[in-house]
Design brief:
about 475 residues, mainly alpha, two-stranded antiparallel sheet, 4 strands, about 65% helix
């Protein structure tokens, strides 16, 4: 569609520049009616769900499973989370966000809430859902009121990069732990070093990692062009490299994991029960609301604001500059997901920069990537329900670790654009505090303080606030 269309109400206003209204005044106030015809909506959704490459999008859909499966499996085993209900709701979330944004926008579990639930015996499913609803409600209000957009504008880029680097390194270190040691997800503990051989051995993980490096390289799309230019003398060599690079590495590894899971636990397949779980409203007492907010929402909220909204929007702009994904719309979609699904036992979810980086790393380039993943989750949730947990419990954790490792590295690599020592100092202090203190909020605070002090050293008489805070580039 090439004609100018009427503007959309959030979250649609930020999906694509062609939906931007040229009649907006400098303050961004739209003078046109926000009404959009159903035909235009359908056409835009179709455009967002188009596959750039079928194999690449399928491969990209696997890029976020290294985070999703361990957390969901741990909560299912430790807290009796309804896996079937979670699959159904997260499948719907995946499809809808892919249709709205047109980029591989991930749907991930809220990690801080999950960590509290696994480590605290008294923090049950009602508390988990209460924490998700409260977090979602606050994020939705921040989006609706426009406060999230203001927060996004005020946070300096080096601080955002520090959060991204810390999250990426955290994922990578967790991945190495998955690869090196046997995991007991139900108790969130390690169970000794992993053996070299076996269906979930260290050697298998190393082979999978080497396979991804051979196929994907460093993940730079320009590598193929440079390779073709430098190897024109041997056409067979170019064809071989092109064929290798076109392999869906993450999908092949995930499929291998499924096969090994069936081999490791053949009784799990026989125990499948067909049909969805019965979806019921979760009963949340006053005590559960209180515990959920204090122990779940308060530690989760800074992480959701920084990584699930701010970092996601910045990373989306870096990877897909033609798409205008706003902090307002992302904050609202995260809020709506939890305000709906958590009442019925669906795991509290958010978007995440690590998931976006992982899906991009393995080839995801459109909303069709996550929509495909959503359809797969939805089908599994409707057909197998919670009985699927038996096969997931046998899935090689080392293989999941490999997928998570490259997702984390891809996110960390995004911080490479800090070109000055001043920017690098802010970023690295933010990263170090976030990792050592295990708190994105603490790292963010330290990064802001360091950024302010560095700018204060260069304060000039009569200098405007914008020039002072943004280095002259507000």
């Amino acid at each position: 569609m090439q004609q100018t269309l009427p503007s959309l109400s959030p979250p649609f206003t930020t999906m694509d520049p062609q939906f931007q209204n040229p009649s907006q005044d400098p303050a961004g106030t739209d003078r046109r009616s926000p009404i959009l015809s159903p035909l235009h909506v359908v056409q835009k959704v179709k455009q967002n769900l188009i596959f750039k490459s079928k194999w690449a999008e399928l491969n990209g859909a696997m890029g976020d499973l290294g985070t999703y499966i361990p957390i969901v499996l741990a909560l299912t085993l430790a807290k009796n989370l309804d896996l079937g209900t979670t699959l159904i709701f997260t499948g719907v979330y995946n499809f809808v966000t892919g249709a709205i944004y047109g980029v591989p926008m991930p749907v991930q579990p809220m990690k801080s809430i999950a960590a509290v639930a696994i480590s605290n015996p008294s923090f049950g499913i009602p508390e988990v859902m209460a924490a998700g609803i409260c977090t979602g409600g606050i994020l939705f209000l921040l989006g609706v009121t426009g406060l999230m957009k203001l927060v996004y504008k005020l946070i300096p880029l080096p601080v955002v990069r520090g959060i991204q680097l810390a999250q990426g390194l955290s994922f990578a270190m967790t991945a190495v732990k998955y690869i090196r040691t046997v995991q007991n997800f139900a108790k969130s503990k390690t169970a000794g070093d992993r053996h070299w051989l076996g269906l979930d051995g260290l050697l298998l993980s190393i082979i999978c990692a080497c396979f991804i490096i051979i196929v994907n390289g460093a993940g730079d799309e320009n590598d193929d062009c440079e390779m073709n230019d430098s190897s024109r003398s041997g056409s067979w060599r170019r064809k071989l490299r092109k064929n290798i690079a076109s392999l869906p590495s993450a999908f092949i590894i995930f499929l291998l994991g499924v096969i090994l899971a069936i081999i490791r636990g053949p009784k799990a397949v026989k125990g499948f029960k067909f049909g969805p779980s019965s979806i019921e409203v979760v009963k949340i007492s006053k005590h559960s609301w209180k515990e959920g907010f204090i122990k779940g929402t308060i530690p989760q909220l800074p992480l959701s604001v920084l990584n699930s909204v701010i970092a996601v929007c910045k990373l989306s702009t870096d990877l897909f500059p033609e798409k205008d994904v706003s902090a307002t719309s992302v904050s609202m979609t995260v809020g709506l997901m939890n305000l709906v699904g958590c009442w019925f036992g669906g795991l509290p979810c958010c978007h995440g920069a690590g998931g976006l980086a992982g899906q991009y790393k393995f080839g995801g380039r459109s909303g069709g990537c996550v929509a495909l993943l959503g359809v797969a989750k939805l089908v599994l949730g409707l057909v197998l329900g919670s009985s699927l947990v038996k096969i997931l419990d046998q899935f090689p954790v080392g293989v999941l670790g490999v997928l998570l490792l490259f997702a984390g590295i891809e996110l960390a690599i995004c911080s490479r654009d800090m070109n000055t020592k001043e920017e690098s100092l802010v970023m690295l202090i933010c990263t170090a505090v976030s990792l050592v203190g295990s708190s994105a909020a603490l790292g963010f605070f330290c990064g802001i303080v360091v950024h302010f002090l560095l700018r204060l050293r260069k304060l000039e008489k009569g200098q405007s606030w914008a020039t002072f805070w943004y280095h002259g580039n507000p």
